[in-house]
């Protein structure tokens, strides 16, 4: 079987109009990438007609190996070239300036990188109490986010208040569990490094049966300005998505060269509009790349640097990184045993898609 030509190692960002068809080159030989110019004749390949449903931007595959033609699915990350890492000359280039850390208010320190990107460290002083649960906003509209909102906190021994974020999808990440979660009268156990999905208009409560605090992360999309504290648990539970707690399972890993990720919560796994994933990267520095979504990253283990072009800052376990949409960035791991992280973005999609 004839293999397609790899036209480029990254997808092409294309502006599309609803109802206006385009014809995507599947053979890789076109000189008008990613569009067909007739070069496929005699190759056995045919162009793929793509009819956008809405106006906007789309990443069309340029490596020609996507399984979701013509849209990029991240297949360019596994083309057998050993990974998409910064070249040795990049590593030897003069370092970007190191952004200083500043205390924004008690318990909240951050470092400002390029174009609204920042890294935050939050302590208990910045948290608001909801029963045994203490949380603090780290990424919200006033900090520059347009779509994503994210909270960090802890659940002390005991039970949280019954909480609701009306109209928002919620993805909870249990950092160092275990905890129990009650959603609409149903109870689920969640171990460390588990994801929990709560659907819009459901209420939930977290319970820590242990004797030490457990760190938890909340992603709430779209942002909810009015957190509701309820006296009684409503019986609303979306039975179309019965599985609400998803744990780490090596069998569900997706490889990206010598890196991997596992989706915990997303539209396919839990019916959520948020994607939550866990992953690991080896000691290395990725090439600069971009995403068509805002993203938050929690460093679970390891140390390194977040690069955004003209600036960089050291990162360590516990740090939370905010990346605006289309912000060029690369995460460098300097730890010998690699870096483990949790990432979230909205709307839901694949962590492997980048350009």
Q: How would you sum up this structure, described in words?
A:
- The chain is an all-beta fold and 355 residues long.
- Among the domains are: 79 residues, no CATH class; 120 residues, Jelly Rolls, CATH 2.60.120.
- The protein is 3% helix and 43% strand.
- It is built from two helices and 29 strands.
- Strands 9, 10, 11, 12, 13, 14, 15, 16, 17, 18 and 19 form an eleven-stranded antiparallel beta sheet that branches. The chain has a nine-stranded antiparallel beta sheet with strand order 6-7-8-27-24-29-22-21-20. It has a five-stranded mixed beta sheet with strand order 5-26-25-28-23, with no helix packed on it.
- A hairpin with a 2-residue loop joins β6 and β7.
- 40% of the residues are buried.
Précis, in short:
With about 350 residues, this protein is mainly β.
Number of helices: 2
Q: Could you list the spans in which at least 5 consecutive residues all have pLDDT below 50? A: none
Q: What's the total count of β strands? A: 29
- Proportion of β residues? 35-45%
CATH architecture call of the domain at 127-246: Sandwich
> Which fold name is given in CATH as the topology of the domain at 127-246?
Jelly Rolls
Mean pLDDT: 92
Oligomer: single chain
- Report the biggest beta sheet as strand number plus sense, adding barrel if it closes: 11 strands, antiparallel
Rough shape?
globular
CATH class categorisation of the domain at 127-246: Mainly Beta
Estimated radius of gyration:
22 Å
> How far do the termini sit from each other?
28 Å
Query: What is the helix content?
Result: under 10%
- CATH homologous superfamily (4th level) name of the domain at 127-246: Jelly Rolls
Query: Which structural class do you get from the secondary structure elements?
Result: mainly beta
